[in-house]
Amino acid sequence: MAIELLCRKIGMTRIFAESGECIPVTVLEAGPNAVLQQKTDANDGYTALQLGYTDRRRKTVSKAANGHFEKAGVGPKRYVRECRVTAEELEAHAVGSEVTASIFEAGQKVDAIGTSKGRGTMGTVKRHNFKIKRKTHGTHEGFRNPGAIGAGSYPGKVFKGQPMFGRMGNEKHTSRNLEIVQIDVEQNLVLVRGAVAGHNNGLVTLRAATSPK
């Protein structure tokens, strides 16, 4: 269990290492996250931190939510999430304090959780990398059709999980064991090697790798 920091994906760029290597990186604005609430074993049956990220206008929030934010001594937040933590981490972060990018360090392995871009309804060629049929004699108009999707009289059904057309993207995706190349603590920027799922300005959750290689 570790703190899952709420971040904003700024975009991708590249940096050059001292050896001259060109490294593609994703720039994440890592917080700061405000600690809104502490969940304890005695009161809730588990230990967790409730974090808030990105300010929003007070009039767009309900009275109950405004009261919750005022109790923590912070302004209204757009994103509110919980993350399971240990008892030691719970004691280290009081209600009303901030969690910043300083909890990570360069060279650390992390997991980035985001929502992939929604592509709408897509066919099997785009969605499952089906091969396009040969444009030759005997092939009619269905060059991008998937072909047969089931057997004949036996078993007489379409098996579950058959690759077909449908909605593509807009799904939760976890990029595991990404390396932190660089951290700017003053601006709360974390540069992660490689790509992270989601569009620019999308919400990304960053945590220490749960299954490092």
Structure notes:
This protein is mainly beta and 213 residues long. The strands form 3 sheets. The protein has a 6-stranded antiparallel β-barrel with strand order 1-2-11-10-7-12. Strands 5-4-3-6 form a 4-stranded antiparallel β-sheet. It is 12% helix and 39% strand. The protein is extended, with a radius of gyration of 23 Å. The model has no long low-confidence stretch (mean pLDDT 91). It is built from 4 helices and 12 strands. It has helices spanning 41-44, 63-72, 87-92, 124-128; strands spanning 5-16, 22-30, 33-39, 48-55, 77-84, 98-99, 109-115, 120-122, 166-168, 172-184, 189-193, 203-208. It folds into 3 domains: 17-29 and 102-118 and 169-213, Translation factors (Elongation Factor Tu (Ef-tu), domain 3), CATH 2.40.30; 32-99, Double Stranded RNA Binding Domain; 120-168, no CATH class.
Gist of the model:
This protein has 213 residues and is mainly β.
Main features:
213 residues; Elongation Factor Tu (Ef-tu), domain 3; mainly beta; 4 helices; Double Stranded RNA Binding Domain
Write the layout of secondary structure elements.
Elements: E1 5-16, E2 22-30, E3 33-39, H1 41-44, E4 48-55, H2 63-72, E5 77-84, H3 87-92, E6 98-99, E7 109-115, E8 120-122, H4 124-128, E9 166-168, E10 172-184, E11 189-193, E12 203-208
Which spans have pLDDT < 50 for at least 5 consecutive residues? none
| Beta-strand proportion | 35-45%
**Radius of gyration of CA atoms, rounded to a whole number:** 23 Å
- CATH fourth-tier homologous superfamily of the largest domain: Translation factors
Query: For the largest beta sheet, what order do the strands appear in spatially?
Result: 1-2-11-10-7-12
CATH level 3 topology of the largest domain: Elongation Factor Tu (Ef-tu), domain 3
Coarse structural class:
mainly beta
CATH class of the largest domain: Mainly Beta
Work out the oligomeric state of the chains in this entry: single chain
Calculate the terminal CA-CA distance, rounded to whole Å: 17 Å
Please state the average pLDDT score.
Answer: 91
